[in-house]
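For this section, I looked closely at the sequence of one protein beside the tokens encoding its backbone, which the following lines show:
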Amino acid sequence: CEACRDRKIKCSGTNPCRYCSRRQIPCRFRENVKKKLYSIEYVVRLEELAANRSLSTGQKTRYGITPLKNCGNDQFIELPNLQEAEELLDIVLNSLGNIQHLFEPRAFCDRLSEFYSATIDRTDIWYVELLIVLAIGKLLRGRPDSAGTLPGMDLYQEAERHLPGMMSLRREGMTAIEILSMMAFFLQCADLREDAYVHAGMALRLAVANGMANENSYSGLKRSEQAHRCRLWWTVYMQERRLSAATGHPLTIQDSFITTKHPRDAPGFVVPAAMIINIELAKITGQTMDSKLFSHMIDHPLTQKVVYGAQNRTLIQHVQSVQKILKKLQDVAQLIPSEYTLNLTRAPRLSRTAGTLYLMLHQAS
């Protein structure tokens, strides 16, 4: 349309187009321009849905969840109203605190208001992200579902039905990484660790493919984009490390390949001190699984694994491994900011952040 052409942005091709519809401005096409009835992304998603029609529907799984059925346009579920959606968003943000960063709250709030003020576009990838956030909020709120399934599972399955294939998803960049990492978070909270590990691994691989593990990829970006990108990378990294340890599966990437620096202070973002401690604890958790990152600290030349692993080790190797890990944990514990330090000389009054940091510390040990 003329508005998208003037602003040099991609037009959805519908009449009115997505851009003009959201901004409630006239949408005009030039007479000599052939109008597209549907966007390319919309057609690709319909083809992917058609290709998945052979999914099984009769098998029951954990929590009474059935495998995903075919989804047509008549199977969209009803979303919570705007007020409830904002309440669920607050629940999610309070749970994430300042030691994780799965999405940018300010940008999400802006999109949320726009989404509810216009006609719902269920072909937009952001619709999938909204569904996941609402699903996490419902799960953390803990109110039993009327159907007897896990709270938020209906929204989660709706998100899976609209999730593009991996090739299309990769083109969505940061949004795709946010979606997969939040799906992993939902599944982890639902005690589905194996499924969470798979999604966290996909999120990490997409992040690596987008250059987020490389510090050089951050140059030239706006400061707010750098802060969001860096925090998201380390959150996905922490997810993958802890889920690898929880399931006993291999790590996706070695620390030696990562050059991205820790999060820095940035206007509009929480101080990253607590998150940096959380990152260091996740690193140590990963090092208990793979000693190729850590074996130079152990004297024995035949050492292959630090604490856990399939290869045989002598008793002295195992003791040395545990000692080195405990020493690193002790060093990190000394770096916990004073406002989060546990004082056992008086009745403990822990904040959520402090409690989580000490929980991660003792889980790693």
